[in-house]
Amino acid sequence: MKKAVIIASVASMIDQFNRDNINLLQKLGYEVSVVCNFEHGSSTSNEQVKKLMTDLDNLKIKRYHVPIPRSMFDIKNMIKSYCLLKKLSFDKQYDLMHCHSPIGGVVARLAFKKSHQQGTRVIYTAHGFHFYDGAPLKNWIIFYPVEKLCSKLTDCIITINKEDYKRAKEKFCVKEVEYIPGIGIHVEEIQNIYTDIEKKKTEFSITNEKILVSVGELNSNKNHEIIIRALALLKTDTKYKYILCGKGDKEEYLKDLVKQLNLQNKVIFAGYRNDIKEILKLADIFCFPSYREGLSVALMEAMAIGLPVICSRIRGNIDLIDENKGGLFFDSNDIIECLNCIEVLLGNEKKCSDYSLYNLIKIKKFDINKINFLMEKIYLGNGESYDQCYSTSL
């Protein structure tokens, strides 16, 4: 039997972005293994990681814990991970290796160099290069040369937004560069999910307020601070609440900020949630202020629910949201522009309704069935770009 391995830095990357890839590889006749850091670094809860491990065991997926770090400065664990992955590549003789995440992708490709030379097909999915138009200079100095070097150890690079696709196609030393619009979402399943609206409202002490929701790790990149600061400047009679779903190292800072700005009765820190889609069904507006994204699943899920969107004008977001059709953009550092977007949507139900309908239609282009069709072609070695397979461009 053919053997394939999926490698990522942390378990949440496997859980959130690779379950369909695992199923697809099994369908294609592969014995599948999973390698990641099962102990540290995940953006989900410990309970969710344990559930993932149980699910993998039930699917007869071999899993290996390797302490792949999320920081490139954790040299000790990078070296340890490299040695463990190199040994695994020699011992298991995989036919296909599919790696993810910046650190995990680099360590995996370096460790599989010899195996690659001996015939292992190496695929790397870039979930958003750290170098992008407008990125800090240090990102270009550190990450660009490393990714360009590792492209020589790769048979196929999968990009999930058009800026990354163009850059990899033009600049990298790799035979195949494919564009796939994200990991795909189960559009129909999301739209049909049952939600006890009244129960959810009671949980969050919601009565007749307008609800804004953000989803994402509470870290610097997700930039939740700008929404909080914009809300502090909001001058409207409209009652609202802002639900922030996620956990992370900025949580205490953001909670202190909310207290300083006297928004304790407006901002709800919901923590890590397994019921994001149900919470989105409560919402009137989705807010997504990140500095950097590849192609956000959270944003796609909000579109599938039919939410109008306020988001930062960045790579990935501009692939998903059409301005003044599905949402409004603001600069990631411009609080006043962000405030204006919030005021417009809070005060215009007709615009919100129009944006909602538009997003419900557009999100169909990102349905999991279309993504799996493209991924199957890539796994079989005859990949085609999205535009080749679908005449309607994004």
TrEMBL record:
<dbReference type="Pfam" id="PF00534">
    <property type="entry name" value="Glycos_transf_1"/>
</dbReference>
<protein>
    <submittedName>
        <fullName>Glycosyltransferase involved in cell wall bisynthesis</fullName>
    </submittedName>
</protein>
<dbReference type="InterPro" id="IPR001296">
    <property type="entry name" value="Glyco_trans_1"/>
</dbReference>
<dbReference type="Pfam" id="PF13439">
    <property type="entry name" value="Glyco_transf_4"/>
</dbReference>
<feature type="domain" description="Glycosyl transferase family 1">
    <location>
        <begin position="199"/>
        <end position="356"/>
    </location>
</feature>
<keyword id="KW-0808">Transferase</keyword>
<dbReference type="GO" id="GO:0016757">
    <property type="term" value="F:glycosyltransferase activity"/>
</dbReference>
<dbReference type="InterPro" id="IPR028098">
    <property type="entry name" value="Glyco_trans_4-like_N"/>
</dbReference>
<feature type="domain" description="Glycosyltransferase subfamily 4-like N-terminal">
    <location>
        <begin position="23"/>
        <end position="181"/>
    </location>
</feature>
